[in-house]
Request: fold
Amino acid sequence: TAKVQEKLTFCVYTGANCAAGGTALTLGNNGVLDEGVAYNNADAKFTVYTNAQGGVVVRAKTFAAPGHTLTSGTNSITSIGGSAAASAVGTEQYGMCIDMDGAGTVNAVAPYTGVEGGGGTCDEDLTTGAYTGTNTRFAFDTTATQTTFGDDVASSSAASAATVGVLNFIANISLTTEAGIYTNDVALIATGTF
Reply:
């Protein structure tokens, strides 16, 4: 007689791997956004694997403080929303897409796949800095991320080997975006279906 225990492993990091840990992300040129340039950051990653027969769901959740999108006091940068859109320089936008890699079966879910309404993929420009891609679509649904359990961003329908998700965040501002230090806290939550 032998027992196989339920197992779910999930780690979020910005270093080289899970063991390297992580820090806060910075969007912009040395942290400064400019209305003439789109900036992205693809340093945040997660690794997930599970033996759950029903698979796993990864959700993104935001909180009232500092705000559900990039926020500075009472000012905020408009999130893209639940319909993915291309980067639009000179227009306020905050969003992300997720590029999945590895031997597992966990995949990004709409609208975070990077392709809705266009022919791109989220891995079109995973170089942190000025965003030079044109086809990738980004989203950030603040209505869904502030619900009790958050917004589904990746999932599998069966047990999965290790899969790495790269979160590609983008931020654009307009000429009239109010000056300030803008921040956002996003929690990632993985839940297995055993």
Q: What stands out?
A: The chain is about 0% helix and 40% strand. The longest strand covers residues 160-172.
